[in-house]
Write a structure and sequence with these properties.
Length: 478
Amino acid sequence: MSAQIGVTGLAVMGANLARNLARNGYTVALHNRSVEKTDALLDKHGDEGDFVRTETLQELVDSLEKPRRVLIMVKAGAPVDSVIDQLEPLLEPGDIVIDAGNSHYEDTRRREAALAKKDLHFVGVGVSGGEEGALLGPSIMPGGSRESYDSLGPMLEKISAKYNGEPCCRWVGTDGAGHFVKMVHNGIEYADMQVIGEAYDVLRTAAGIEPAEQAKIFTDWNTGTLSSFLIEITAEVLAHTDARTGKPFVDVVVDSAGQKGTGRWTVVSALELGSPTSGIAESVFARGLSSQRGQRELAQEILQGHEGSVDLPEDFVEDVRLALYASKLVSYAQGIDMLTAAAGEYGWELKLDEIASLWRAGCIIRAELLDDIMKAYAAEEKPANLLLAPAFAESIAGAVPAWRRVVAAAVQLGIPVPVFSSSLAYYDGLRRKRLPAALTQGLRDLFGAHTYNRVDADGTFHTLWGEDRSEVEAVDTH
Ligand code: NAP
C-alpha cells in the first residue's frame, strides 16, 4: 500500500495531525526517530484509519506515492535541519517537504531556498489550535511555492477547521509567509490574553468583583462583539475553585507568565520592519516583568504608589468591556499592519481578508470579530489600517470615552494596564494632527545634522545650529 503522505515526528502534535489525516481517509506513513512513539500511536489509534509503519526515513520515503509529501513535525530549530539533511538525499525532484512546526520564518526562507536548488518544494506551514486542534481541525497557514499547494492544499484543507463550512486553510504566500503569519497570530494571541488580564485586574482591584462573579461577566461578554475562544475559557478559569484550598484557582497560581518565544519573535520582527506593534510588545514585556519575581518582591517593600481614589461610573463593567474591545482591536490592527509591512519587505502577496478568514476557527485567537475583519479587507476599497475601515472607525469611536475613563481610573489606582494604555496612545497618535516627532527631528538636526523636511516647502534642510542658525538645503542621506 503506498501512502499519500508521511509524517515524521510523532510527539503529540505530529501524532494528532497523522490521526487527523487518517481519519479523513488518507493513507499515512508513520515515522519517528525512536520507534516507540510510532508503535504507541499504532497500539492506541491504529484502527482510526490506514497507517503504514516505518522504522527508517528510507522506509518512509519508499512507502510514499509520487510526488512524495513528507510532513516534519519535530522540535523546532536544529532538529528540523537535521531531519531535512537526512531526507534530502532520499527524495526526487518535485517531492514536497513540509515543516508544520513552529519554525522561525527566516529559517523557513533559508530552507526553502536551499531545497529549491535541488528542485524540491519546501513548505513552511503555520498550524494553530494546540493538540486538540491538530486532531480535530486546526487553522492552517501554508507558505511555500504556489505549485506545491496544488498537490498539498486539498489535503490540508480537508483536515483543517471549518468556519460555516469554509476551510480555515489557504495558501498565504511564498517561502516563509506561512510561518510569518502564524508568528503574528501568536503575537496577537499574547496581546489578546494580556488585555483580558488587564480587564480582570481592573474589575477586581478597582471594582472589587471576585473571580466567580467575573466568570459570569465574561460569559455574558462572550455573547457579544467580544465573543471568542479566549473569552470563553477565561470564564472557565475564573469560575474554577482550587480543590486543595477552596480558594479561587486564579489566586493559587504563581503570577509569573511563561513564554515559548513566538511573541518575542513577533516583536523583534516588528522592530526590524519599523512597524509600531506596541500592544504585542507590551504583552511580551508584561510577561517578562511578571517573571522578575525577585525585583518585584523588593519593589513591593521599597517603591511607593501614592494611589488616589476614584469614583467609578455606575456602569464601570461596561466601560471595561469597551476598553477591552478597543484595545483588542488595536492589537489586531497592529498585527495586520505588520503583515502589510512584511509583504512589502519580502515580496509576499498577502491577502489580508483570506488571512483573517483562516483565524475564524480552529486557532487560539478565533473570534467573531475576525469575520468582520475579513469583510473589511474583502471590501473593494481596502482600509489603510484596520481602524480606518468604516465599521471599525465607528465602533472604536463609540468605545473611546469609556476607554479613557478606564485607563485614567487604572492610572489613579496604580493598576498597570500596559496594553489598554499603549493602545489608546497608539489610537491618539494615529489620529493626532501634529506629533512631537517634529521636535525630535529638530533635536536630531541639532546634535547630529540629521536634517528635516519642512511643512511648507519641498526638499531636505539643515539649520546651522553652531553658526548663525540660518537654514541650508541639505542632501538627505537618511
Ligand atoms: P516537540 O516536543 O516539540 O518535539 C518532539 C519530537 O521531535 C519527537 O518526535 C522527537 O523524537 C522529535 N525530535 C527531536 N529532536 C529530533 C532530532 N534531532 N531528530 C529527529 N527527531 C527529533 O513535539 P510537539 O509538542 O509535538 O511539537 C512539534 C512541533 O509543533 C514544534 O515545532 C512545536 O513548537 C509545534 N507546535 C506545538 C504545539 C503544541 O501545542 N504542542 C502547537 C503548535 C505547534 P523522539 O521521540 O525520538 O525524541
